Amino acid sequence: MNKWILGLCVGAVLGAVGCSSSLPSVQTAARKPYDWEARLLHPEVSVMRLSPDSAALFLRIDRNELLYLRDAPELPFTASVQIQAGAQSWRLRDTLAPNMPQRLDAVWRFAVRDVDSTRMRGEGLRAEVHIRDLHRNAEALESLELPPAHQTVNRFDASGWPLAGRDVAVGDTVYLQGPGGMGWVWLQAVAEPNLPSPPFSSFSDPLADLEARALDTLQADAEGRFAFVVPEGTSVLRSLALDFEVILHGRRADFPHVRTVPYLIETTRYVTSRSEYERMTSSDDPKGGLDAFWLDCGNDEDRAANLIATYYGRVEEANRYFSGLQEGWRTDRGMVHIVYGVPNKVRRSGRSEWWIYGEEGSANTITFSFRHAPTELDANRYILDRSIQFRPTWDRMVTSWRNGRIQGD
Fold first, then answer.
1. Residue 19 pLDDT more than 90?
2. Rg, Å, the chain Cα set
3. Which domains does the chain have, with CATH numbers?
4. Residues 71-120: pLDDT tens digits?
5. pTM for the whole thing?
């Protein structure tokens, strides 16, 4: 039985991150910005400057997320995707064929002035990119950020595809392309693997004083290109000639997923007692201990399987949305997201977020307030406003996990 349930655990996390018989709506995705399953499309968008006046937009999307239709029995199945960035618009048609790769990649060149919606600090550009599956009427919204022309440094993976974010597997090689012969300083910071204190307890920020330490200098070749092998922790590549730096977070090879037994055990810490956690980590059979924990919570195999899918699905969502110096599940927002689930509503104002659980304005409503607390190394940091008043609801939620009463989002 133990082997069966852990197999189901890993299968659920490797697959759809949860079990649902119906597709979520676009309205649900807009209301719940941190619900990965509520989004029908998960495109990856990156941008690269080609000249001061032109750039290229790179789109990567999973073909399994697109709806392929045909107008007549004799015609092939095709998908139709529209991409809108500022005043610029493109249409992508993809025809099903045997042995197609799972990922669909496309590139478009555009004039920078055509996507200039707002100016970033330093006169860079920020624009919203709308990707719509016209057959399914599903849309995803991504942010496009383009630095000023005089700061242009493009980042690529080993295949030559531009990087869309800062998370890179430890040991992977990143290639940077900038002005020829430019020098760089490599700095590194490694955050301790701490967990946030519960919402009702006192708090001291372990990352507030974390600084990157200079380790080496790097030199680009005559064409401005150099390779960097990503280590653990956060690396800062700072240009010696430009007011510009590249930040990369070294992650596990399977990030943001939860697939190995040690990691499956580690992430249960929010709902396990200290003795249970230590017993699993020190056991000669940690896999069996993990199986037994979830089976004890669920009381039967089906309920345990639902708990597993929900819990680790939330861990992966936290990693996708809240990661920075630490993996997202270790952050304040990640902790609340995992234990309480997707909030009914998220309000944003200035530098704060309010997560609302329950009917807003009712006596049973729970509201968590997060303050934006960015550092030079992590712009995605938010700190929870803690209160002893959260103690009863926290205890109640943890007990619900342990009694198998948690439902999927």
1. no
2. 23
3. 29-146 (2.60.40), 155-251 (2.60.40), 256-402 (no CATH)
4. 999 999 999 999 998 888 999 999 999 999 999 999 999 888 777 555 44
5. 0.87
Report yes or no: 35 and 335 within 8 Å, Cβ to Cβ: no
Q: Return the amino acid letter for 200.
A: F
Q: What is the pLDDT of residues 143-179, one digit of tens each?
A: 877 777 766 788 899 888 998 889 999 999 999 988 8
Tell me the pLDDT band of 15, cut-offs 50, 70 and 90. very low
Structure tokens at 16: 């759809």
**pLDDT tens figures, 277-291:** 999 999 999 999 999
What does residue 68 show for φ and ψ, rounded to 5 degrees?
Answer: -100, 125
SS (H, E, C) the chain: CHHHHHHHHHHHHHCCCCCCCCCCCHHHHHHCCCCHHHCCCCCEEEEEECCCCEEEEEEEEEHHHCCCECCCCCCCCEEEEEEEECCEEEEEEEECCCCCCCEEEEEEEEEHHHHCCEECCCCCEEEEEEEEECCCCEEEEEEEEECCHHHCCEEECCCCCECCCCEEECCCEEEEECCCCCEEEEEEECCCCCCCCCCCCCCCCCCCCCCCEEEEEEECCCCCEEEEECCCEEEEEEECCCCCEEEEEEECCCCCCCCCHHHHHHHHHHCCCHHHHHHHHHCCCHHHHHHHHHHHHHCCHHHHHHHHHHHHHHHHHHHHHHCCCCCHHHCHHHHHHHHHCCCCEEEEECCEEEEEECCCCCCCCEEEEEEECCECCECCCEEECCCHHHHHHHHHHHHHHHCCCCCCC
CA distance 256 to 246: 21
Return all residues near 150 (Cβ < 8 A) that are at least 6 apart.
Answer: 242
In sequence order, which residues have a C-beta less than 8 Å from that of residue 86 and are 6 or more positions away? 114, 115, 116, 117, 127
Q: CB-based burial of residue 182 (10 Å sphere; 0-12 exposed, 13-18 middle, 19+ buried)? A: buried
